[in-house]
Amino acid sequence: MHSGGDEQDEDEQDVSVECLGLGLGLRRLRRRGGGLCLGVAEAVDNRYSRRKIGVRVSDGSYTLRSPRVYYDTRADRAVLIDAVFRTYDERLRMPLYMRAEVVRQEAANRFSAERATYANSAFAEPHLSIGTTRMTIEDRPEADGAGGPRRIVEAKGVSLRAGGVPFFWWPWYKGDPEQFPLRSIGFADNNRVGTRFSTSWDPFTLLGLERPRGFDAGVDLDYYTDRGFAFGGSARWNRGNARGDVRGYYIPDDNGTDVLRNGQTIDRDGDSRGFIVARHLWRFRPEWDLQLNGFYSSDEALLPALFRDLGENDEELTTRAYLRRLEGNSSLTLEGKGLTTGFIPNEHLAQSPGYAVDKLPEVDFGSIGTDPFGDLWPGFLMHTWNASASRMRLRFQEIDPADIGINRAAASRR
Q1: How many whole angstroms separate alpha carbon 25 and alpha carbon 16?
Q2: CB within 8 A of 403, min separation 6: which ones?
Q3: Over the range 83-116, which residues count as b (16 or more CB within 10 Å of their CB) and which as e?
Q4: d(Cα 65, Cα 80) in Å, to the nearest integer?
Q5: Is 134 exposed, middle or buried (0-12, 13-18, 19+ CB in 10 A)?
Q6: Per-position pLDDT tens, the chain of length 414
Q7: Angle 181-184-188 (CA atoms, 0-180°, nearest 5)?
Q8: Which 3-state string (H, E, C) describes the chain?
């Protein structure tokens, strides 16, 4: 930016600015200290404002201004005092402003800001803003070298502010700025669950952790007007020869009313309730794999009242270990499973046949399409066989019918 005129005094220096990606290069600067520290021209006159603006940089998509800048040409570093950064976010369709007491260019691909405020308003004190005590922006190359650099933001002392008053605080944030930690916000109001406000969060972004490859997780924070706060979470992984998922939910102080499928209601009196269900498949050898399942629920009415999808559509909810070997046309399996609750969580099993089967354990061996005379007379004789030995136990419901809303004969026929 040129201040205009051939004759300039000490306060109106001729400054040119060169933009290099995230980096800033400043030319025609006065040397100080043998070139190790360069002071940038200050107080360039701006006829549209009564105050002085030292340096302004713009490439059409962003504008950066500061009354005082110091630049080290040898180390390619810069310091901007009381800087204001402005850009336009095409995805959000709104302008974005950052004000910071100090902005440092620590490398060509790394910037940091101290005591910064972010808002979509040009006012010095916007109505709503995000504040940080320190923030770092860095462009990092992808680990596999594919694609361009990935922009990572690391912030400490993050706060949401109304005017100048903070009303929410979080100690740190780290991640891609395109991936905000709040994934979704929901609202529901019906006669089955009541009024519920739900939020889903990304725990890796929220805690400033790198997301492991092949792994994803979510954290739920909900509020029911009659049940109070509730917490949940889920995770999924797929890492080569192992994959699985886990899901859980917890209501610490439930004072709501459960509405079951048959229309019966059950009032809760400060009950602590929750469930967890997990599945894992591990193929540790080409012919061997191990399947693990786990399930627990605090009471028999939780799933029918609030999580009907699990009891209706999911596979059998039980605790199970299943070891299998498949090679050629033969198989060998070893299975142990059993309920950890006194009730049957799957509706199709509870209704018909009305019981679940524990296997403690079961061994099975079989062969399909064996040709004993394949070398002499191929296909002359084929046989398939299977043998198993098991210690089984039938598990029936061990609950009071009133616990699932059956408190009179008519209710049992609904």
Answers
A1: 9
A2: 266, 299, 300, 301, 343
A3: bbbeeeeeeeeeeebbbbebbbbeeebbbbbeeb
A4: 9
A5: middle
A6: 333 333 334 333 333 343 333 333 333 333 333 322 333 333 333 333 333 446 777 766 677 788 888 777 677 677 888 888 887 766 657 787 888 898 888 877 788 889 888 787 777 777 778 888 998 888 777 665 555 567 777 888 888 788 778 877 878 777 776 667 778 878 888 888 888 988 898 888 777 777 888 999 999 999 999 999 999 999 999 988 999 999 999 999 999 999 887 778 889 999 999 999 999 999 999 999 999 999 999 999 999 889 988 887 768 899 999 999 999 889 999 999 999 998 999 888 887 788 899 998 999 999 988 887 777 888 778 888 899 999 999 998 887 766 665 555 454 455
A7: 150
A8: CCCCCCCCCCCCCCCEEEEECCEEEEECCEEECCCCEEECCCCECCCCCCCCECEEEECCCEEEEECEEEEECCCCEEEEEEEEEEEEECCCCEEEEEEEEEEEEEECCEEEEEEEEEECCCCCCCCEEEEEEEEEEEEECCCCCCCCCEEEEEEEEEEEEECCEEEEEEEEEEECCCCCCEEEEEEEEECCCEEEEEEEECHHHHHCCCCCCCEEEEEEEEEECCCEEEEEEEEEEEECCEEEEEEEEEEEEECCEEECCCCCEEECCCEEEEEEEEEEEEEEECCEEEEEEEEEECCCCHHHHHCHHHHHHCCCCCEEEEEEEEECCEEEEEEEEECCCCCCCCHHHHHCCCCEEEEEEEEEEEEEEECCCCCCCCCCCCEEEEEEEEEEEEECCCCCHHHHCCCCHHHHCC
Report which residue type is found at 375. Answer: D
Q: Which of 384, 290, 366, 382 is nearest to 330 (CA)?
A: 366
Q: Are 126 and 162 in contact (CB under 8 A)?
A: no
Amino acid at 402: A
Judge contact between 208 and 172, C-beta under 8 A. Answer: yes
Take residue 85 and report the two structure tokens written for it: 């950064």
Please give the distance of CA 53 from its chain centroid, rounded to a whole number. 42
